[in-house]
Structure formats: structure tokens, C-alpha cells
Amino acid sequence: MILIVDEEAQGSKEEFCSVDKLKREVVKYIDESVEEITIKKRAVYNNSQS
């Protein structure tokens, strides 16, 4: 899972392997100055033939 924070002056991109860790990180960004939060869920398919 990847969290991309796109702020006006600077942004960040972090990868998480735990949903709980990702949730805790998202909560850090939520305060009274937040105007918009977008969450996208994309399915990843493993098409490799083993």
C-alpha cells in the first residue's frame, strides 16, 4: 500500500505493508486545515504463470 501526500509546497510517498500503520499515518495529516482527502483503492492482479 502506498500513501502519497500531495501538499502545496512539498509532498511525500511512503509504502506500508500494514493497514493499521497506514491508517495511523493518514490520521496524522487530518486537522482543521485539511480541505480534501482522496483515497483510491486499486486491485493488483498477479498474472505471472508459475
Question: Quick gist of this model?
Answer:
This protein is α+β, with helices and mostly antiparallel strands and 50 residues long. It has one helix and two strands, in the order ββα. The protein has one helix at residues 19-29, and strands spanning 2-6, 11-15.
**DSSP helix fraction:** 10-25%
The chain-level mean pLDDT equals 80
Q: What percentage of amino acids are in beta strands?
A: 15-25%
Regions with pLDDT < 50 over 5+ consecutive residues? none
N/C terminus separation: 24 Å
The assigned structural class equals: alpha+beta
Oligomer: single chain
Main sheet makeup: 2 strands, antiparallel
DSSP, total strands: 2
The value of Rg in angstroms is 14 Å
Q: So how many helices?
A: 1
| Sequence of secondary-structure elements | EEH
Q: What is the overall shape?
A: elongated
Q: If strands are numbered along the chain, what order do they take across the biggest sheet?
A: 1-2
Write up what this structure looks like.
With 50 residues, the protein is of the alpha+beta class. The protein is built from one helix and two strands. The model has no long low-confidence stretch (mean pLDDT 80).
Please name the defining characteristics of this protein.
single chain; 50 residues; alpha+beta; 22% helix
